[in-house]
Design a protein that fits this description.
8-stranded parallel barrel, TIM Barrel, elongated, 2 domains, 16 helices, binds manganese (II) ion
Length: 390
């Protein structure tokens, strides 16, 4: 059987940090419930110390949502860890995710701490978190810009202090796929014995500043990472995070290449995307892979003709697989007679060749005025024609 890649959804934490998005407790619960239906392995529900509202939301999610691990984020500060534990402890499967920056620029400018001080903080705070909660994740923030030797030392310290998931974040979206894959491989090689002995999962958290979030996550998976942190529709800080639907459908569609599986119920993808988009007020880009309005829309006549003969000519995924609710055929200036004939037949019209040509001509005229011609437009023209000929 293929190995599993765990899907860690951070829509409610990093995703909610998207400029322009903010979710109240009720909205967070709706999304969390849908994420459980989607069957994500871990829900990062929030950053409890950041506000009372966020604390309450994480607590309610921990109390009400069954199935996934419920995780909260904390800095390497005792009050953060306490607050997070107070919120997640109601879950059957609680997790505390502790992070501290390890890149020189973050340590010098933001934390004003030396390497040795950072190592001490990791040792102390991971051990403290572990004394409260059996499932601890550690992230060396800005890992992709951290000196490799120091990153390994920080990770080793975290594992020895009790962390069982190590997340390597590309916090600022700076990494390139091949390079990022090598960094993951380095961790797995340098700490091989410890990782095996403690049964540690290596995770990644990639940002999309250069548009590489999904590619970097997949490169990491190829190198041996077995948890991917991602968000629905790729929302998140700045240009966003790795898009859950894209990483999952890569693994699914190219099983021949990855030979890996996820637990995701892919039929819930489209619905989840809609709910998140509506509640966050963040519109999905029209040509977005997997969930964009155009993702399965074929307009060019030659494509539509091929699609009717055999869908696999132009379609590597079936829209129904991801629970697609939209129309997959858009009739435009470039559409051909075949597509229109198919829609007519499906709706009970059996017109002869000449009639179909006439309808096609009318639709193309309409397409000049109105960009999207949908099924209802075709049926309206067909109805009118029927009436005329009686
Ligand atoms: Mn992030």
């Amino acid at each position: 059987m293929a190995e599993k890649v765990l899907i860690f959804d951070t829509t409610l934490r990093d995703g909610e940090q998207s400029p322009g998005a903010s979710l109240n407790k009720q909205e967070k619960l709706i999304i969390a419930r849908q994420l459980a239906k989607l069957n994500v392995d871990i829900i990062e529900a929030g950053f409890p110390v950041s506000s009372n509202d966020d604390f309450e939301a994480v607590k309610q999610i921990a109390m009400q949502i069954k199935g996934p691990v419920i995780c909260g984020l904390a800095r390497t500060i005792k009050k953060d860890i306490d607050r997070t534990w107070e919120a997640v402890k109601y879950s059957d499967k609680p997790r505390i995710h502790v992070f501290v920056a390890t890149s020189k620029i973050h340590m010098d400018k933001k934390l004003k701490k030396t390497e040795q001080e950072i190592i001490e903080m990791i040792k102390e705070m991971i051990a403290y978190a572990k004394s409260l909660c059996p499932d601890i994740e550690f992230s060396p923030e800005d890992a992709s810009r951290t000196d490799a030797g120091f990153m390994i030392k920080a990770i080793e310290t975290a594992i020895k202090s009790g962390a069982t998931t190590i997340n390597i974040p590309d916090t600022v979206g700076y990494a390139e796929p091949e390079e990022f894959g090598k960094r993951i491989k380095l961790v797995l090689e340098k700490l091989k014995d410890l990782i095996i002995k403690k049964n540690v999962v290596i995770s990644v958290h990639c940002h999309n500043d250069l548009g590489n979030a999904v590619a970097n996550s997949l490169a990491a998976v190829r190198a041996g990472a077995r948890q991917v942190e991602c968000t629905i529709n790729g929302i998140g800080e700045r240009a966003g995070n790795c898009a859950l639907e894209e990483v999952v459908m890569n693994l699914e569609t190219r099983k021949d290449y990855f030979n890996l599986e996820t637990n995701i119920n892919i039929k819930e993808i489209f619905k989840t995307s809609k709910i998140v988009s509506e509640l966050t007020n963040l519109e999905v880009q029209r040509n977005k892979a997997i969930v964009g309005r155009n993702a399965f829309a074929h307009e060019a006549g030659i494509h539509q003709h091929g699609m009717i003969k055999d869908k696999s000519t132009y379609e590597i995924m079936v829209p129904e697989d991801v629970g697609w609710l939209g129309e997959s055929f858009v009739i435009g200036k470039h559409s051909g007679k075949n597509a229109i004939e198919k829609i007519l037949k499906e709706n009970g019209y059996d017109f002869e060749e000449a009639k179909i040509r006439e309808i096609t001509k009318k639709l193309k005229e309409l397409a000049d005025i109105k960009k999207d011609i949908l099924k209802k437009d075709i049926l309206e023209i067909a109805n009118n024609l029927n009436k005329k000929t009686g």
